[in-house]
Amino acid sequence: LYLQVKPGGDIAALSGMCKCLLALENERGGVLDRAFIDAHTDGFEDFARTIEETSWHDIEAASGLTRGDLEEVARMYAGAKRTIGIYGMGLTQHVHGFQNLALLTALLLMKGNIGREGAGISPVRGHSNVQGQRTVGISEKPKLVPLDKLAEQFGFEPPREEGHTTVTAVEGVLDGSVKGFVSLGGNFARAIPDQGRTDPAWAGLDLNVQIATKLNRSHLLVGSSTWLLPCLVRSEEDRQSSGPQAVTMEDSLSHIHGSVGKRTPASEFLLSEVAIVAGMAEAALEPNPKVRWKDWTADYSRIRDLIAETYPDEFHDFNARMFTPGGFYRGNAAREREWETDSGKANFVAPTTLTALGQAPGSGEFTLVTLRSNDQFNTTVYGFSDRLRGLSGPRDIVMINPEDMRRAELVEGQRVTLECAVGDASGGTRSVPGMRIVPYDLPDGCIGAYYPETNALVPLDYHDVESKTPAYKGTPVRIVA
What mean pLDDT do residues 460-471 have? Predict the structure, then answer.
């Protein structure tokens, strides 16, 4: 069953499903996992009361779906023995994206579908180490890192203050409080929102270091001291003084895999990321007998030994297990129904809004959803055939349904300018000109355009109120013919 939810309407759609489940439980019983709810969750009664008091009229208006459609989905879910809730950026990249995830989690908790074989919640990850880096302490949140352990191991006092998110880092570049920037791969300047404002600001950095495997647009935004440091690709052989090296990654299902590059490096002068970072650190920091940059560069297994020492429950015998077929399982507390929350239980969070949008489109406005094509990985576009959508050719297009085209007096192939309809203190106009109208099956009041080409339309301060994730899936815009 395929249903098109209005942009930002997922909170309402999920609330409607929860409302149906509560009604079915009242009618016949046995729908909810009461034993699980009583033993493992907190806040269910308040959550249920909020959902029951939410009107179907409001749910239909916010979701763009009918009560009948949502009841059909809810009955399918009620009859399923096991369910996996899979989500991607369509839920997270909203001003109230956190509430999208809270409702999806609640829907699964109602039937005990977390911590049970064949069930659970799973994000769609893109990069092989989006998850893995957080696992070993790369985080802006000090409470997620074993700082006392690190202080003991390495004889220094780790910073305890909150670090930067993408949004706060860019705010710092804009206001001058961020003086230096070191990038480990990626195309940061194109992945971020508000590029019309941010592009000139990079020139104000005292230091900009880009460590990368291939050239991208971020490397062209230079300042007074800008360094581009090419490094080995993971598929290339990484040979250090102790011999060939291996690295590891963590997949979406919390399994750790080893990886050994086999290809001849593109240049004999290429260094690995480890060698570059360790070399920079050794040159910049005072000597510390507990911090052995050269030894770690010579043999990456020594780094893995330290990870195992820091996280013994998850990474014991790291080097011995890294090439386990299928990867070795790191573990996940929720799978064991161990809840790492203040209440010690899984929390039901009642919605405070039915739309994840920060600003509903006004008269003559549309909600922009930025999209990736199937020939694309993050900001890297490998081809111009979007087989997922049956489209091909240049990416400077605006997808819009035919009825909206008619109402806006637009014709296929017409060139238009997109303008952001969000007002903020920064002033100025955010616009992307030269976009071509393409009819496409989308909900009313919604347009689609490619990421990162239309990132400039999303204001930097238009982001999730909890996580600061930019709202790439729900920005109000105008079409100017």
Answer: 95
Alpha carbons 24 and 388: distance in angstroms, whole number:
37
CA distance 132 to 129: 5
Separation CA 331–CA 310 (nearest Å):
15
Local confidence band at 125 (pLDDT 50, 70, 90 cut-offs): confident
Asked if 16 and 70 count as a contact pair (C-beta separation under 8 A), the reply is yes
Question: What gap in Å lies between CA 113 and CA 277, rounded to an integer?
Answer: 42
Give the CA radius of gyration of the chain.
25
In whole angstroms, what is the distance from residue 180 CA to residue 173 CA? Answer: 9
CA 372 to the chain's CA centroid: 13
Rounded Cα distance, 275 and 142, in Å: 26
Distance (Å, rounded) from C-alpha 133 to C-alpha 141?
13
Output the pLDDT for position 307.
Answer: 97
Can you read off the two tokens belonging to residue 460?
A: 């930097």
Is residue 431 very low, low, confident or very high in pLDDT (cuts 50, 70, 90)? Answer: very high
Is the pTM higher than 0.90? yes
Q: At what angle do helices 10-28 and 56-63 cross, to 10 degrees?
A: 140
**Inter-CA distances, 15 with 40, 106, 277, 405, 442, Å:** 21, 9, 47, 31, 22
